[in-house]
Amino acid sequence: MRHNKKIKIAVFPIAGMGTRFLPITKTISKEMLNILDRPLLDYAVQEAKAAGIETFIFVTNKENTKPVDYFSKNTKLESFLKKKKKIDLLNEVKKLNIKKKNMKIIFQDKPSGLADAILRTEKYVKKEDFCVILPDDLIIGSNCTQELINVYNKKKSTVIGVMEVDKKDVSSYGIIESSIFKKNMYKIKNMIEKPKVKDAPSNLAIVGRYILLNNIYKFIKKTKIGSGGELQITDAIFLSSKINEVWGYKFSGKRYDCGNKIGFLKAQIATAFKDKNIKKELNKFIKSIGG
């Protein structure tokens, strides 16, 4: 029997070059691009905090120091806000701070796949099970990480966030094949990375939320280079499924793919519509340009 572990560690892989957003990503890393007044990475970290995460591990490249700056205490700014009596803003800024002992930075020399990024965290994660959050996937309307942790607490197994996609789009995703399901839970028996439409076993796509058992490191080490010349986490999870159950959970929020321009723009609008100070004016503006 596995003892009763809690998920307290989150890994954020952010070493990508953001080429689809050049030229802005020449100076700003993709996960620091803003959705309204907060960077994408902040949404991911706040999701993790709300789900009870205490240790935050960022896998990044050596040029990218912005995430550390953003989540570290800024004494000069806090003093300025205090002096100006901008207490609401001061509290907002303070809430971002992560204590140094709870924040780990790991460098990935070049983007070599999600599994490679995760493998580099082994000595920091130690023997714990953990979650992985990809900031590119902004999920609004529910805490996806918390939903997956709830399933993990019941099953004590690997859990992956999944969602339905149009059949014609399956070749852009990892797709699951499942044997049984109930209440949005799917017992996974196979995962295929970016299949052709005719080869896809379902239209249930894997998105950037994972709860991984600690033995995933052992399976990553056994994984061969896969799709795109990179180490694919789906291949490692599939290997692990020979030993452990792997579950997919169809989360209840709405996911926006902020790794491309149209998804990023949709996320901006959807987030703005959730802000009561902006919604009315935005609605009026969209109607005025819509013809």
Explained architecture:
- The mean pLDDT is 90.
- The strands form 3 sheets. A 9-stranded mixed sheet has the order 5-4-1-6-11-8-12-10-9.
- Helix 3 (75-83) packs antiparallel against helix 4 (87-96).
- It is built from 11 helices and 13 strands.
- It has helices spanning 40-50, 66-71, 75-83, 87-96, 114-119, 122-125, 144-155, 216-222, 233-240, 261-273, 276-289; strands at 9-13, 34-35, 38-39, 55-60, 103-107, 130-133, 137-140, 158-164, 174-182, 185-193, 204-212, 246-250, 254-257.
- It is α/β, with parallel strands linked by helices and 291 residues long.
Q: What is the overall silhouette? A: globular
Distance between the termini: 63 Å
Report the total helices.
11
| Number of β-strand runs | 13
Q: Main sheet? A: 9 strands, mixed
Strand content: 15-25%
In what order do the strands lie side by side in the largest sheet? 5-4-1-6-11-8-12-10-9
Helical content class:
25-40%
Give the H and E element order. Answer: EEEHEHHHEHHEEHEEEEHHEEHH
Q: Summarize model confidence as the mean pLDDT.
A: 90
Low-confidence stretches: none
Indicate the structural class. Answer: alpha/beta
The radius of gyration is: 20 Å
